[in-house]
Amino acid sequence: MTMPAPVLNLADAELRCASPERTPHGDSASQYDIRWAEIASRIGARKLGYNLTVVAPGKRNCPFHSHRVEEEMFFILEGSGELHYGNARHPLRAGDVIACPTGGPETAHQIINTGTVEMRYLSVSTLAPVEICEYPDSGKFGVFEDLPDVGCEHQARFRHLGRREDARDYWEGE
Q1: I need a surface site. Which of 4, 36, 138, 167 has the fewest CB within 10 A?
Q2: pLDDT interval class at 62 (50, 70, 90)
Q3: For residue 19, what pLDDT is reported?
Q4: Where does 39-158 show beta strands of DSSP type E?
Q5: Residue 16: inside a domain
Q6: What CATH number is associated with residue 72?
């Protein structure tokens, strides 16, 4: 297998939008702009995920959330906005670097474009086969199989969203 070139200029990154099943819906759908360009696989990365994220003024890319397994870092390239992090809010501008370590509600984060032009930022994360995210605003959690096992690419990845009060006893139905 040929390795891809280890360099990609962001001008050559191909932006894409969320698939129909992942497009926001409901009362708050208009608050989101989900556009990104996947970079990691195009330059041969193996243990880190990289993408370019683009967000329109007044929008955000994802809900307020935390990660239990994967750590994230963001680098603001263009635009301005706000980082909602735990219980705090921080202004953002081009050149800012953001650390989002693993944890619970205290590390929950969301980047909001509060400026008047598109916000562009690099997103970098560790990669794990299984991730657990928590969404403090809605009380949900998600379990996501992000990387399929080698040789099982044809199988659907496991994804489950729920709430703690939906928990079942370990022995129920056994």
Answers
A1: 167
A2: very high
A3: 86
A4: 48-55, 66-67, 72-78, 80-85, 88-93, 97-100, 109-112, 119-126, 130-135, 140-145
A5: no
A6: 2.60.120.10
